[in-house]
Design a protein that fits this description.
There is one protein chain. This protein has 8 helices and 5 strands, in the order E-E-H-E-E-E-H-H-H-H-H-H-H. Helix 3 packs antiparallel against helix 4 (141-171). The longest helix is centred in the middle third of the chain and has 31 residues, at 105-135. It starts with a strand and ends in a 9-residue tail after the last helix. The model is unreliable at 8-12 (pLDDT under 50). It has 239 residues and is α/β, with parallel strands linked by helices.
Length: 239
C-alpha cells in the first residue's frame, strides 16, 4: 500500500492497477480503511486532512462532485461513494471465500438500512445541536444550549436508548452482528457507535454492555489497529 497526504498544492496519484481509497481524517471513512485491512489486499491510500473549520478540503471535489469521503476508486477506474456501496463492493470482490458473507441476509439488510437511515440521522441531529451549543457566539449561545437540552430531553436521549437496546437484541450472544464473523453490518454500524461512545451521547459501558464489548472487539482487531496507523487521525470529538 502506498499513501500520500493530499495538500492544497497536489494530491497523490494512485498506482496503476490498484484500487484507491480517498480517506478523510476523523470520518466514517475509517471503517472502510478497516475493511480493506481485513480483506488484506494491496491498495492505494490518499489521505486528506480536515481544514481549520473541520470541513473536508476542496481537493476531494476533484475526486467526486460531492466532495465527501470515503471515495473508493476500483482497480478498473470506477468511482464508488457511500460506505454501504463501498463495503458491499469490497466484500463481493475480495472476500472470495465468503468468510464475511451474511449468515442471515434479511437481518443483514435490516441492520445496514438501520445504520444509514435511522441511527445515522439520529447522530447527525445530536451533532448539529452539539455544534450549535459549542460555536454559537455569546449571548446567543445560551439559547443554543437550551435548544440542545430540550432536544436531548424530549427526543435524542430516549432514541439513543431505544437504538442501543434494539442493537443489543440483534447482537444477542454473538460476537458480531453478522454472526460468527464480522460482516457489512458491523462495518456500517461502527461509525455511529463510535460517535455515540466518543461524544458520550450514551453510557455504553454502564447501560449497554453488549454494545460496549462489541466496540472493544472491533478496536482490538489487528486490522483495525493497522487502519488507525495508516490513517491520519480518528477523533470524533474534534468538531
Amino acid at each position: 500500500m502506498s499513501a500520500k497526504e493530499a495538500t492544497p498544492e497536489a494530491a497523490s496519484t494512485p498506482k496503476a492497477g490498484l484500487p484507491t481509497l480517498h480517506h478523510l481524517s476523523d470520518s466514517q471513512s475509517q471503517s472502510i480503511l478497516w475493511l480493506l485491512e481485513e480483506v488484506d489486499i494491496e491498495y492505494d491510500l490518499v489521505l486528506y486532512k480536515r481544514d481549520k473549520g473541520h470541513r473536508a478540503p476542496p481537493e476531494l471535489l476533484d475526486i467526486h462532485q460531492l466532495g465527501k469521503s470515503p471515495v473508493f476508486v476500483t482497480a478498473d477506474g470506477r468511482t464508488i461513494i457511500e460506505r454501504s456501496a463501498i463495503s458491499a463492493y469490497i466484500l463481493k470482490t475480495y472476500d472470495t471465500t465468503g468468510k464475511h458473507a451474511p449468515s442471515d441476509w434479511v437481518k443483514d439488510e435490516i441492520l445496514n438500512s438501520y445504520a444509514g437511515a435511522s441511527l445515522g440521522p439520529l447522530t447527525t441531529v445530536e451533532l448539529m445541536f452539539d455544534l450549535a451549543a459549542k460555536h454559537t457566539p455569546w449571548p446567543f449561545v445560551y439559547i443554543a444550549r437550551a435548544f440542545r437540552k430540550g432536544i436531548q430531553k424530549n427526543f435524542t436521549t430516549d432514541e439513543f436508548k431505544k437504538s442501543m437496546t434494539f442493537l443489543e437484541g440483534e447482537l444477542g450472544d454473538n460476537e458480531w452482528f453478522n454472526g460468527k464473523e464480522f460482516g457489512r453490518a458491523d462495518i456500517m454500524l461502527s461509525f455511529a457507535i463510535d460517535n455515540i461512545y466518543m461524544r458520550k451521547w450514551a453510557d455504553l459501558e454502564k447501560d449497554h454492555p453488549k454494545i460496549s464489548a462489541w466496540r472493544q472487539r472491533v478496536w482490538e482487531r489487528p486490522a483495525w489497529k493497522r487502519g488507525l496507523e495508516k490513517g491520519n487521525g480518528y477523533d470524533l470529538t474534534v468538531f
